[in-house]
Amino acid sequence: VNEATQTTAQLVGFPAALWDWIMLGYHYDTLIQFAAAWFAQPSAQVESVLRQQLHDWWAQGFLWRKEGDG
Amino acid sequence: MTNIALSNVCNLACPYCFAATTMNRTDKQPGNRFISLDDFAQRLDFLERSGIGQARLIGGEPTLHPQFADLVALARGRGFNIMLFSNGLMPSHALDCLTALAPDVCLVLLNMNAVHSDGQLSQTEVERRRTTLQRLGPRALLGFNIYQPNFSLDELLLLIRQYQCQPAIRLGLAQPILGGENVFLSPKQYPMVGEKIALLAQHAAAQGITLEFDCGFVRCMFSDTAWQILQESQAKMGLHCNPILDISLDGQVIHCFPLTGRVQTDLRPQTNATTLRQQLAQQTQPYRLSGLYPECSLCPFKQRGECTGGCLAHTLQRFRRHSVRLVVPGRDNQKALA
Prior knowledge:
Chain A is an all-alpha fold. Chain A has helices at about 15-25, 30-40, 45-60; one strand spanning about 65. Chain B contains 11 helices and 12 strands. Chain B has a 10-stranded mixed beta sheet, with helices on one face. Chain B is globular, with a radius of gyration of 21 Å.
């Protein structure tokens, strides 16, 4: 839920799993491994899917981007 | 419905208390422990312009208000029926005032498992509560808040028969206060409690007593068999969670006590209950797609509107903002904070 814009997203399938993994605090590299297992594809191929999903959530205001602190 | 807080003091301290946050907050303001007669008259104005005929009085323990009888007289003088929420340990002047009212204009919902913070009551207090019941008779409706899976209603059934109270028991589920630390029933325990409630409903129905549900119950806590038993027992099974409108001493209109500080608005002149309910419902609307369980969003009971997905306080807790840092390597070295 993005309270500022009153928008919601109902997640199913891979996005739902990915969101839970992020909330559980998994490292980015681990997320790639999980995604690779989910899609049964090599890590290099699934990373673009993962990045696109993160970008979409950022654009929708469900994630915030912080820059410049290393 | 709209509840008006008369006081923020209580002579008990239930571990599951829904009002604890409000009480703690306003306790910090000296002299603001009881509603003034003027403010109460304004609350009645609000009820009047909202077309509400019942003044529902809450606390703390509302009967501890030193001018309790004057407040009741004011409400009655303006034609309001009285519904009072009490722990039963009320001063004698308050009890006198209530017993002077006819049972058809006065209903007292007595929380029968209101206790001290250690979960106990002294023998004197138990006897005082019984005296209250005895004197209120048909004005008394017995309530019970479930905050642990092991509970019994046997004593309540006995008391209802003994003192000719309303032939019903109002069951509440203890819900979490957002930002508070009260004891509440975990949704994981709901199915176990649901089965027990069905058996108790059957047992009570055999004695001509029905069970009524307060807000926050969910359909999936009852098996189909349990649900059928409840229906056959004539239980009043509400599965709802809506803005109740609890008006605090400082004039804040709260969705309900568990959502204090999270979903509330000011009581302004000329506003009415319908407008405020819409306003508060608007604030919570995005969360209504879901419920207290992750499965709620795809639940057929919820999709058919038969269940609202339980108490919103649980849902909001589930959606509370996490501060999880995710470092994403790459060209722009972006970091996402959910």
